[in-house]
Amino acid sequence: MRIIVYGIGAVGGAIAAQLSFSGYTVLGIARGRQLDAIRASGLSLSTPQGTRTARFPVHADPSEISFEPDDIVLLTMKTPDTPGALQRLNAAGVTAQPVCCFQNGVANEAMALRFFANVYGATVMLPADYDTPGQVAAYFAPKIGAFDIGRYPSGTDDTAEKLCGVLSASGFIVDPRDNVMSSKYRKLLANLRNIIDAALGETELQRKWYAKARAEAEAVLTAAGIDWDKTDAMAREELTITAIAGRTRVGSSTLQSIVRGTGSLETDFLNGEIVLLGRLHGMATPVNSALCKLSVELASGRMRPQSAGDDTIVAMIGRTG
């Protein structure tokens, strides 16, 4: 069995490195300077326990891989990049191989199911940074991270159990889930804060607007008949975010995208998911709508990260009607 990690950023890099350290056969798919750096010198993973370098084959595109029947594909790119990735996997000959969405949000699994019959969801709890090509940092201790994994839209099977075993043996806490999307909606609610922390610099303002965004989201999910896991997954096994010597944590995946100047953010698939559900069910979502508009300003560079104030979001709410 080979594990193809498609998207060697912070999360994908940490997963690929840990699998490689544990002796599993890993193939990566990366791009740009990250691809060049890994090909030249491997991938450096820093954790609270220290720094190690993983070496595994890395490709620029799925077409460079001869896929085998027992391969497992992990999608670890951000949601805006998912449609193109799925099309490239399809063109490269992936058919019945499991495709597992190790991604934030709840839209990726449905997209994948249009192309592939065997789709799995994974809730990712892995605070990690990627800001320098060839280097990734993961901040959880004592384990690297935690995942809930299940078949999409529901159920578990031998593939899910096998993947859970592989990841557990590689330093992660992993739980198979009959209803993985309930877990993913819980994470979606937490991820509503990503754009808030990226835009606002004051802690109290971050808390204030996250409370508003989350209350709005919970009302919409309830109206839509969508259940979410109410447990506090971040406390599992007492995982804690821990300092890494010589490093300062950048922050959420959204803030990392802004810092790297990627030009696009995943906000439309986080806060935007709430906006979509609100429109489908006739409910106004002024706070999350405004936060989506704010993400455009940050992604374009017209606004600096963590420079917004209370009045910025109030004005944005006014402009979105």
The helix/strand class is: alpha/beta
CATH topology of the largest domain: Rossmann fold
- Rg, rounded, reads 19 Å
Going across the major beta sheet, what is the strand order?
5-2-1-6-7-8-12-13
Low-confidence segments, given as residue ranges, are none
Count the DSSP helices: 12
CATH architecture descriptor text of the largest domain? 3-Layer(aba) Sandwich
The CATH superfamily of the largest domain bears the name NAD(P)-binding Rossmann-like Domain
Total beta-strand segments:
14
Beta-strand residue fraction: 15-25%
CATH class of the largest domain: Alpha Beta
- Number of separate structural domains: 2
- Mean pLDDT over the full residue set: 94
The major β-sheet equals: 8 strands, mixed
Give the termini distance in whole angstroms: 52 Å
**SSE order, one letter for each helix or strand:** EHEHEEEEHEHEEEEEHEHHHEHHHH
Shape: globular
